[in-house]
Amino acid sequence: MSEQDSKTRLYLLLGNPVSHSLSPAIHNAAFRSQAINSVYLASQVGQNNLKAALQGMKALSVAGANITYPFKEEAVQYLDSISGEAEKVNAVNTIINRDGKLHGEITDGEGFLAALKEIFPPYTGKSRVAVIGAGGACRSAAYTLANSGAEKITVFNRTLPKAKALADLLLDGIALENCAYYPLEVKPLMEALKDHNLIIYGLPFDSDLFLQAIKDSSPVDKSTLLYDLRYNPLQTAVMEVFKAKGGTGCSGLGMLVWQAAYANELFTGRRAPVEVMKKAVGYEAC
Length: 286
Prior knowledge:
By secondary structure, the protein is α/β, with parallel strands linked by helices. The chain has 11 helices and 12 strands. The model has no long low-confidence stretch (mean pLDDT 95).
């Protein structure tokens, strides 16, 4: 990355909160490696100010942005165009400014799958998947797994209509035949821990109900993986309890790096320097 000047292209992370985010470190390391005159900054957006923030991107010729919690779904309605997958899952995490028109993409699912293939146990495509949560990142990850040959997917969510909506999406025009949905309750969660070998945890907090389900369940096989989409902290309470029960737990840091790599390729039109991006945050596959 050259010294910033009037030609420096600006990229933003839009979310609330963003002070904890490692995305600036990842993207700026990539820009330096690519010798691209660009800078990436985190910008906290007020709860009712997303539309204004996106209009500001146009007004200020901001080259692109990533969208994080809690705006991935809301952002869809304010964009000029979105990709087919983003339309399916009704969420975006990457925006490119194309001559004043904002185009949205979703790289979460692709990033999740790339991270999953790196870790133990390696993903083979035939997993029985339990999804805890139904937000944008969960929907994208589940949609990608459904298209990649998952054997079954079960969705749990505090709001049952959102769980049903995700299950309906996964059964619509995809080869997946076995998909159910349940409220976030201890008993069905305990059943899922017996019958699923991949748990995607997508809630922004440590659910007391899920923690209780793990504690009350039988020992978990080491080959059963809990992938917590959060990465701060790297060891969450959910992961610690799951590993104490015998399973394998991984944080979402790998997904963060890989979704950023695919976003970088959309930003720049070049192959992303993935190893550089990993090194920027000290990521090693678990």
